[in-house]
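Dear Dr. V.,

Thank you for agreeing to look over these. As mentioned in my earlier message, I'm a first-year student in the group and I'm still getting used to reading structure tokens, so any feedback on how I've presented them would be very welcome. I ran two proteins. I've put each sequence directly above its structure. The first is here:
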Amino acid sequence: MAHKHSLEALNRILKDIKNNDKLFGGTLLVLSGDFRQTLPVIPRSTYADEINACLKSSTLWRNVEIVQLKVNMRVQMLQDPSAETVSKQLLDIDDGKVTIAETGYIKLANDFCTIIDSQDALIEQIFPDVHTNYINLEWLAERAMLAAKNVDVDILNLKIQQLLPGDLVSYRSIDTVCDGTEAVNFPTEFLNSLDLPGMPPHNLQLKVGSPIILLRNLNPPRLRNGTRLVIKKIMKKVIEGTILNGKLRGENILIPRIPIIPTDH
């Protein structure tokens, strides 16, 4: 995911520091990654811009020796045949070994997944009897739903939370501009309509018992991006939660209200 300019800058810096004209100042550099996953993210760019930012488009690429890892250690440690099957199916898609339909879309195998007719049926399949089972943290920790678009995430979150007992509590973001002279150009209604990537929605609705996920590193490695928690208590400016995953599973923590200002707005 690193931009090629980052490595090119590192190359020049190491040459200067070590006073050596060899590549990276004669230092052996080990890189890890997979081009079948996420390429460098370039805001408001085209496909060509992303390819151009990739390491393969750099003059450094001709000096890279590729070493491949063949064993999926996560699957091997699980010792689950179904996980091995899914891993192989995903690699076949990445390697272009699956059939392409006339429409140009990938045609998945019939046994690739289970097709559900509606969102309600999906919720019942993943979270059966959630109104009673949500108090079982182990049961909650092994369940999650993914969606391609944020709008689908919001709809699913609201539907699942409505199945939990208790009332929804709304946490609204600060809707004033930093520069008071710009208030006329950015009315409150406009600020409330913004849904910025990597940030919670303007009106964040939560319930006791709702699973949540952190979007920022607050106190690594204890509280970092991706840590899953379940809400234990809701207060005006603080949320008390219980960690669901990792070595600190079961530990109670407090999340205060934190001002976050996007760098590109």
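The second protein is here, in the same arrangement:
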Amino acid sequence: MFKSKEKWKSVDSMKRMFGVKKSAMLDYVLENWTEDTFFGYQFLNGVNPNVIKRCSKLPSNFPVTNWMVKSFLARGSFLQREIEMGNMFISDYKIMEGIATRDVNGQAVYVASGFCLFYLNSDKELVPIAIQLAQTPSKDNPIFLPTDSDSDWLLAKMFIKNTDYLLHQGVEHILKTHMLGEVFAMATYRNLPSAHPVYKMLITHFQSTIHINNIVQDYLFGPAGPLTMSSLGAEGAKELMKRGFSELKYSALCLPENITARGLDTIPNFYYRDDGLKLWAVLNNFVKGMVRHHYLSDGDVAKDPELQEWIKDIFMHGVIGNSFSGFPETLETTDELIKFVTMIIFTVSAQHAAVNNGQFDYYPWILNGSPLLIQPPPIIKDTSSMESVIETLPAVGNTALFTHAAWMSFKSNNMVPLGSNPDEYFDEAAPRQMLKDLQNDLLFLSEAINERNSKLQVPYNYLNPTYVENSITI
């Protein structure tokens, strides 16, 4: 199908692609992709749970009024009250503004750079209630609402998901896990001898990372690669990654701080947060034991020349000496070392699993998140139709390419699960016991997640330790 230039004729014809590679979750996506509740669910528990945040004040360039959204709020309530109660959430895609997009049939395609406003309703479901597709309000940039025509609202959601896909793939997935994983790996190879305790803790978490990164770069940015063929094209995707890199913060890689900074500590049914924080705590406990076994005081950390060269390498070559990033240039205490090593292990195992493993479930169905949309969104309401939705989709060949890319994220049978550190790296009894304790803690967490999932209509397994790989290998 890759070579086909044909346009899709109907939604039903697209479903014929899924005769072989399917999952229970993909079946659910096919049946529910138009539902607002499922759209909102994905911003918490889909492949990109990293953008949404609590809305404490509407941006001045997103002029949503109470009149627009009153019918979607609890009876008798109003917009400002719901904001003050903490029930409003927002995704802001300003990072996309001004990036040149790819030409398709001689015309530049459209990529949204605006906002999506979400409401946590009385059923504790997160639903979209207003979408603006560009940053600057104008008559050609309407605010779309669930009360608009079905096709207008659906197209608005599709353009948000297109932007979210591009941001997820370029920044949250490739940049913040694959590329940072390579930074950490190279600094470790260059500065820490194999007998060093930090080397022993980390080395199994870098297995195959540099190799897969070379493959990923050639594949994604190749002449017919998924990012090359996306709405941004290869150059636009690289520009997005540069912007994402310039905004990179150490605190955003530390999940407890990330969740608090986005105001998401208490939003219900946020399984990425729930499982992620528990997994962070398990890894932190393991790293704490290891570090304090080998470093008896803060002075031992500060005076370790190899460790200081390692962290300096990450600061200078990883974040290019950018103090704005918050990355440490030196490590002075055991607590600082514990936090940093925990962040590395979490990033290259759990965080990568969270933003990678769900691609097989959510992205094969192109209507749920297409890397490429070839028609612009409506600028005047009530002028679209379901035919407009189909016409906006990429051709059959590009759809097959994007679906294949999503299928490639599927884990092979020979994956090495988190915690499978060969104990030959540790000679002493105490570290060996800490490793066994880590494995037991991960097993207990996996059992708890399985129990929770057995009661959910849509299970969340991406941070189940059983399915989290020890390193980035795909």
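From my reading of the second output: The longest helix spans residues 150-191. Residues 208 and 363 are 25 Å apart (CA to CA). Does that match how you would interpret it?

Kind regards,
E.
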